[in-house]
Amino acid sequence: MPHLLVTALERNLDRPAVYLGDQVLTGRQVRDEISRYAQALASLGIGKGSSISVLSKNRPEVLFNSGAQMVSGCRATPLHPLGSLDDHAYVIDDAEIETLVFDPAFAERAAALHERKPTLRLLSFGPAPLGQDLLSLAGTFEAGPLQVADLRADDLSGLNYTGGTTGQPKGVMGTYRSAATMTAIQMTEWQWPDEVRYLVCTPLSHAGAAFFIPTLLRGGCIVVLPGFEPAAVLEAIEKYRITAMMLVPTMLYVLLDHPDLDRRDTSSLQTIYYGAAAMSPTRLREAIERFGPIFFQYYGQAECPMTVTVLRKEEHDLTRPDRLASCGRPVPWLHVALLDDDGRPVARGTPGEICVRGPMVMQGYWHKPQQTEEAFRSGWLHTGDIATEDDEGFYTIVDRKKDMIVSGAFNVFPREVEDVLATHPAVAQAAVIGVPDDKWGEAVKAVVVCRPGHDVEPAELITLVRERKGPHYAPKTVDFAESIPLSPLGKPDKKALRAVYWQHAERQVN
Predict the structure, then answer these.
(1) pLDDT tier at 489 (50, 70, 90 boundaries)?
(2) CB–CB of 354/399 below 8 Å?
(3) pTM here?
């Protein structure tokens, strides 16, 4: 990936590479800023193998810093801007992070993290009440050629944290080989416009940056918004004549329902990539009828990022509702199979777990050998997603083996929410499930049993989770019950609980 970044910039030195507000940066300017940032990091002893996290809203310095980390060989672990203090602190501790780079808007959070871990070095994107100003430091260096550290394909490029059924998030160990394979698949299998003007409205520290190198390699540019605000997205599409963008389903639904949609010119759009959660076939049909046959779906997960299967534009067949519910066919760069519980291939049409082998698969879970062994049983990465395959090789996800909810494209593991609810003095027991929701795909619902003689308002429990875990974990609704159904082994029977809310659904994902 570092070499791909350098190549992409060197090929397009005098072409616009990044638009952010009124600021336009060429490939040369981006390259030179990355050089300055890399030298600044090196002056602080940050280089190959150094562990570093970033906590920031979208701004050009995030790209410069990410590029510098990449060519320097740092082990990067992003912190999501919507994450809670407890979650950020857990990641900082578990990933053994040495340096935190933060936006001054997150100075209070950075101070709280430093209080919990006094050895944490703090660098800020500009003047801040604490830490060292990385922008000022980078400005003291002259730009020079980008020098990539001596790296091997299986070296760790970063840790990306995903929730856990045990209540502890897991650090997914990504390698340079995995990231480069993902980019190769994007370049060869994905359908790009001839002229790429790509709109970023998701965090650059996460999925937003995954399109940066492919866009530059195609001689295109990216337009970066601070975040997803539907009116601003529609305005940017018209203003910059955007040809490509990525949306999670919930974002697409919001755009379809926005009053500005019919007042803005979106005719420049040639490709809308979507993924991260199941799409409603009904709303997908509506989107195709509104924007045209420009939709391209990708399916993956942190353990095998973004592109295990794809559903191409021409495969979005409006005469086939079943096809609109599909996640596409496996890409030829990976071995993908549907296996039963014994690791044997299932017959076509029979549900099986999506399992993957190949160079894009993670190295394992950081400091979690048992969970790594479980994930790679039978020699395959087990995704936890249950799918069927039709006669033409298209996969359709029908259920999840993992106890996981996908709400607004965020992965929510019920155990983490249940553990927070259990801390409330009025709660005797709580079970958290996902229920079908037109906007969020799946909405987080808590079913709570109160202690004898105690009462609590749903809003109080929702606020408790929001404060402890962040807004995407907070239940949308809370139901109270006399008891939680139990399995024959005495464990909460989530299938029985889900059945009440999913009885009319054709598949167990939404």
Answers:
(1) low
(2) no
(3) 0.85
